Amino acid sequence: MLFQKALTSAARIATRSHQFRSPLTSFSRLSSTMAPKLRDPSLFKQNVCYVNGEWIPAKSGKTFEVHDPATEQLIGTCPEFTAEDTRLAISHAETAFESFRHKTGRERSKLLRKWYDLVVENADDLATLITWENGKPTADAKGEVTYAANFFEWFSEEAPRIYGDTIPSSIPGNRVITIKEPVGVCGLITPWNFPAAMITRKIGPALAVGCSVVVKAPGETPFTPLALAELAHRAGVPPGVVNVVTASENTPEVGKELTTNPTVRKISFTGSTPVGKLLMKQCSTTLKKLSLELGGNAPFIVFDDADVDLAVAGAIASKFRSSGQTCVCANRIFVQRGVYDEFASKFAAKVKEFKVGNGFENGTTHGPLIHHKAISKVEEHVRDAEKKGAMVLLGGNKLPDLGPNFYEPTVISGMKVDMAMASEETFGPVAGLFPFDTEEEVVRIANNTTVGLAGYFFSRDLERVHRVAEHLEVGMVGVNTGLISDPASPFGGVKESGFGREGSLYGIGEYQVTKMVTYGGMGKKLQS
Ligand code: SIN
């Protein structure tokens, strides 16, 4: 009965929505632009990777093409590294580690701070590269550069404050201390959705504690990581401490080398759960330390007692950030029946204000998805929901006249738990609204998934706030906010969303080993 009511109200909103859907689309369309210009063109590195402080091609000379997701035009080409090329980078990182680990925390701090300053100075160019290869609008790209730089700032401040412990021994005459040592050479494998921030979030703590790194840049967005490498060079990071390699079709081979080479002591990966499982299996051959930040299926819950306007703003931010392409994006929006209609209509009205287009165009709020596969998944989820009885309130179609990678921001009402979107991460601009009745029911459904990265809920009841935060099976909870990412906060998941924490004081420990030293024969009487 209540569900019927929700559908009826959904239909009402849908009718209203259809009134503002033009025959083409209800969203503004912006035409594509030409290739952008950088203030400092030397930040754009083609056909070379950064290894041991030098720019080198793949030994084979082979390259791969990188395309602008908005226009599908060629941006440039990058080296197709092999396992052999990667081994070279690892061996230079090993050599560099031996001296870098002995620098003082203060020295490492200064290097990170210098790198931070250069990222800030070159923020416009870095943002241009991000928009060009990832597609996100310039304002979002600038936001990402700030977010990325802040990891360097945060960890530059942590570097001089790495303390061990003194431990009261249970054995008389013994004294026990711990020393926090860098784990060694780290392999960092990063995704395309945050071409700068997912790299700095890993390199920051690694360098702060004295590790050296080999970064595998994503094939879709390699130019931002290579520009960061150029800035590392200018900051005076010693040769071999930071190496950035690229590959596209050879990605599995490069990943295998990083995860099986005995010199590499730690892997940090951000990406999908299936790839994370494969990398973990490969790492088991040499028992590497591992951090995995994998897929999510974030519940976003709006209780009857919520501030609905705040919840709408939170849902917009969480669901549509980077056009829905983040691991912490709301994937299932649960709305209690008492506020369902109000939330749905206010939410759809806000989504209707979006301007979809090329990220370089003034006024664009949402850019393209990264590639065709992403569009296909979104399309599958929308059609599956429709087939199973949900109602598309807004959007629901590709935008082929903008380009093959554009999709309308979409709002769907009357979602049910048997729909694909309930169990799979959509990773696109589609918001499915699920009605619910009770707190117990929604928490049970929210937790009924194999992953647990982020979860959000809106409520003004203090007891409920504590209760629900404690019962959600996720690594991160946003209460009355849709944005939780912050270099000062521990980022990471539970269940099949992986393990390990990035950012914050906890992020440091992921790159350290704790060495215990016991001193015997101590505590005797003073010599007279
Ligand atoms: C991610 O999508 O993996 C990271 C998102 C964030 O740091 O906010």
Automatic annotation (TrEMBL):
Its EC number is 1.2.1.16. Keywords: Oxidoreductase. It holds the Pfam family Aldedh. SUPFAM superfamilies: ALDH-like (SSF53720). It comes from the Eukaryota. The keyword Oxidoreductase applies. InterPro entries: Ald_DH/histidinol_DH, Ald_DH_C, Ald_DH_CS_CYS, Ald_DH_CS_GLU, Ald_DH_N, Aldehyde_DH_dom, Aldehyde_DH_Superfamily, Succ_semiAld_DH. Belongs to the aldehyde dehydrogenase family. This is Succinate-semialdehyde dehydrogenase. It comes from Podospora bellae-mahoneyi.
